[in-house]
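Can you give me the bound-state structure? Components:
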Amino acid sequence: MDLNYTDEQQAFRAEVRDWLAETLPREMSEKVRLGKRLTKQDSESWHAMLNARGWLAPNWPKEYGGAEWDAVQRQIFEDECCRAHAPRIVPFGLSMLAPVLMAFGSEEQCQRFLPRILSGEDWWCQGYSEPGAGSDLAAVKTRAVRDGDNYVVNGQKTWTTLGQHADWIFCLVRTDPDVKKQEGISFLLIDMKTPGVTVRPIVLVDGGAEVNEVFFDDVRVPAENLVGEENKGWTYAKYLLTHERTNIAGVGFSNAALQTVKDVAAKVHAGGKPLAQNPHFAARVAQVEIDLMAMATTNLRVVSAAAKGQAPGAESSMLKVKGTVIRQELTSLLRRAVGPDALPFQADYLEGGDNAEMMGPEHAATSAPGYFNNRKLSIFGGSNEVQRTIITKAIMGL
Amino acid sequence: MDFNLTEERRMLQDSLGRFLSDKYDHESRRKVIAAGKPYDAGLFAGLAELGVLGALFAEDQGGFGGLGFDLSVVFEELGRAGVIEPVLPAVLTGSLVAENADLVENIIAGEAVVTLAHSEAAARYDLNYVTTTSSNGVLNGAKVHVLNGAQASYLVVSAREGGDDWDKDGIALFLVRTDATGVTITDHVNNDGTSGATVVLDNVTPDARLTGGFAALELAVARGTLALSAEALGAMESAKALTLDYLKERKQFGIPIGKFQALQHRMADVLIEVEQARSAVINLAGHMEADRDTRERHVSATKNLMGRVGAQVVEEAVQMHGGIGMTDEYALSHFARRITMIDHWLGDVDHHLARFIDLSAGEA
Ligand SMILES: Cc1cc2nc3c(=O)[nH]c(=O)nc-3n(C[C@H](O)[C@H](O)[C@H](O)COP(=O)(O)OP(=O)(O)OC[C@H]3O[C@@H](n4cnc5c(N)ncnc54)[C@H](O)[C@@H]3O)c2cc1C
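Here's the bound-state model for the whole set.
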């Protein structure tokens, strides 16, 4: 047992920290710190800065322009980015599609798509869920019928995060309706500009529109955009989901959120004294911090096993559940901390407007929308109920 | 012991429930909010006509109710439907302006909104913090989170005539016209679609100095807390009903998700806790006319419980819906926001827990 990072790991941390201090623009980190929504341009420019440094694709091999870091380095990088309030890297192309292409795509597909993911030319979104296929993902109905050199696609995807910005969508489509549902699914890449693709935004409980419905009406997709073999899509989809679950614990996010709660509690007063000195509130914060300290170590235990080459299996489900419970608790602590100032809804401010008229202190403005929005953490990426079922089945054999 | 409503209250409950289910839904509320309107004036007039505001006042004030159970019956129905129209201001100020018969008549008729301008930026949830001053016949200060401030024709303003910032003594209440010289009102929308405002008072001459001081204010806020708690209860009933329907209707893996025991047991907990919330509202309503210490202990007990159960109901309802539960288009989103924001009005879980401890020790 040794809880210390090696000298190299510490040097790496220092390097990342210094680079972030030099490179990350202040107005960008302020937006993230204050919980404002990022624009497409914000995401693109941060993407470009990381790409210029060669740090955009931590999990990619060097031959494709990745950093090829091990799991511990990736964790350190994540932690530092969160600590500096860097924008989240949009994961759909980089950490979801790319590993699938490298594992199952053709050489041409890799050559065609991977460089454009790195350069930011193509923004990808994830077309898995459908109205009738959420937790039961294998129930996807969007139909793709082979017609000469094309597939003709009809159906609907939903909850498509940032689909409004996307150039491409990777989809699970049904190519064989007559077999066991998992065996008739294919993995298809669709250009969002193809005639017949329609994107409709979905407004969420926090007033934002980060997700969309995507409709396909006789959309003709070249057959060369099929990844791997027809009807093997479920295997690729599951492979992708294991990648979706890396950094699932969100320790970095929680550390940053905890710091924000502490900063606000030091600033805000209750009964004439800083809220941080209020025993009820202090106890709540301490409780989460204690949980987070333990979870950070649980995470490192899983991560360092993964760094030694063991694939993170059902343990990632454990990290997802505990990690999201902690992150959600921190959002509810923040709204509690700001007190009645959580009441006003400040749409302009949320959307990043700097001269938006403020109601109350700046730290309060996004607390309630943040609480509502982060309910999603326990729903997407495999709901926490589904994760618990995986734990009971895969780890405990029940 | 009798847990049944009186005949009159049951009739009010029925007619109000029917009126709202005929005239009001999530879509119509969304349209009002999207159009930038604070509420639907026609609907508010309809509520007044139905006697909803009259039910909040005693007979000698021109109403036909005014007791704890009158408030809880009305507000549970308003909460169930998710009403954002300005009924609550009448509860917060009704007992304070009772001496002004003409004004009360206008309130009951739905013709005047009179709201409470009390909270100040540094007060958080403490009722006794007032720095707005009253001296030489004019008021100076700033008030925040004034419910429907921009739609009101009068404000009841708390201001200090003596003592330091936190003293209960020295707080007086004034009736101020919103169009009086020196009053600046800035409107904003709240997360739950209700309207709030900040009010700046710059050498404002009030219409009248009201007779009550801090004790009257505390009673008015106790009534407001009951109304809010009953409203939260109604909203929780709706969130629960939507979730229950969804568990029966939504299929995954070929069966209704309500067949999964993981969800069944949590739904059972939601039911248990909503019943707890109902009992807490009954406790407070039944002690609204009790002596001050008893009443206030129930105020804090109930508001604390509503905040805790509210969060549980909201979080479970959204979770059990999956993605649909997070959409603005679906009615649950409104109930989720409203229940959550009620925790931020008139004292949250932590505030009332601490206050309950103090009151129980005879210290508040
Ligand atoms: C903000 C947000 C962003 C998203 N982004 C994307 C995206 O970019 N691309 C994409 O493809 N999808 C995306 N999703 C969809 C997400 O993956 C689904 O919401 C998720 O899979 C759950 O599906 P559902 O919403 O249909 O809920 P359902 O599957 O209908 O679940 C409803 C409830 O039932 C529970 N449940 C279901 N089955 C079981 C069971 N067997 N046992 C116990 N409980 C069960 C669930 O846990 C949940 O509580 C996003 C969702 C959200 C909310």
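A couple of observations. The longest helix of chain B spans residues 214-249. The first strand of chain B starts at residue 114 and ends at 117.
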